[in-house]
Amino acid sequence: MDQSLTQLIKQVKQGDKQAFARLVDRYKRQVFYQAYAMLKDREDAEDIAQEAFIKAFFSMNQLESAYAFTAWLSRIVYNLCQDRIKQREKQRRVIREWIHEQRDRISHSGNQIEQKQVQLDLKRALQRLTLEHRTILVLREIQGLSYREISEIIGVPEGTVKSRIHNARLSLRAELEKEGGLK
């Protein structure tokens, strides 16, 4: 372990933000590539890299030995990636369940070809929404969470949640209209 890393970590623990910037610069590629290798998505990997450095900054005083820094930082990245993978799976499962529920609801209303087309239109429309819009629709419309609960989950005020839900519904409607699913 080189002396400069030990010194950088000591400075960061003392609150030196420039030292932290140098530490980030030194490890940003390693952190990004580790996240990318696990997630196979550039945007997610960039997000995880930022989150990892933020978490590292606020947890730096928990690091007992500068010699363990690289392993400690890698563990933060690993844990954040695992959380993101679980979040993705949950979103996929909830969307699949919602589509299944819609399919069941539609199955009582008419011919099979029309039903399949509506399902396909809905699935395509959902896939074209931004992750933010898909997520907030799932939380509200599928999981049935209150505005307050959603606010706590995503960390924004209730008014912002209401606005985002409204915008997500408009986006879904617009996507469905493009598919000819709504008239």
Structural notes for this entry:
With 183 residues, the protein is mostly helical. It folds into two domains: 3-85, Rna Polymerase Sigma Factor, Chain: A; 110-179, Orthogonal Bundle (Arc Repressor Mutant, subunit A). The chain has eight helices and no strands. It has helices at 3-13, 17-39, 42-59, 69-106, 112-128, 131-142, 147-154, 158-179. Helix 2 (17-39) packs across helix 3 (42-59) and helix 4 (69-106) crosses helix 6. The longest helix is centred in the middle third of the chain and has 38 residues, at 69-106. It is elongated and about 75 Å long. The N and C termini lie far apart (66 Å). The model has no long low-confidence stretch (mean pLDDT 84). Belongs to the sigma-70 factor family. ECF subfamily. Pfam families: Sigma70_r2, Sigma70_r4_2. Residues 121-172 form the RNA polymerase sigma factor 70 region 4 type domain. This is RNA polymerase sigma factor.
At the fourth CATH level, what is the homologous superfamily of the largest domain?
Answer: RNA polymerase sigma factor, region 2, helix turn helix motif
State the total count of DSSP E strands: 0
Largest sheet: none
Rounded to an integer in angstroms, the radius of gyration calculated over CA atoms is: 22 Å
Dominant shape: elongated
CATH architecture of the largest domain: Orthogonal Bundle
Number of domains: 2
List low-confidence stretches.
none
Report the total helices.
8
Derived structural class: mainly alpha
How far is the N terminus from the C terminus?
A: 66 Å
CATH topology of the largest domain: Rna Polymerase Sigma Factor, Chain: A
Strand content: under 5%
Would you tell me the overall average pLDDT?
A: 84
The CATH class of the largest domain is identified as Mainly Alpha
Give the helix proportion (percent range).
over 70%
Provide the succession of SSEs: HHHHHHHH
Domain RNA polymerase sigma-70 region: 23-89
InterPro entries: RNA_pol_sigma-70-like, RNA_pol_sigma-70_dom, RNA_pol_sigma70_ECF_CS, RNA_pol_sigma70_r2, RNA_pol_sigma70_r4_t2, RNA_pol_sigma_r2, RNA_pol_sigma_r3/r4-like, WH-like_DNA-bd_sf
Keywords: DNA-binding, Sigma factor, Transcription, Transcription regulation
GO molecular function: DNA binding; sigma factor activity
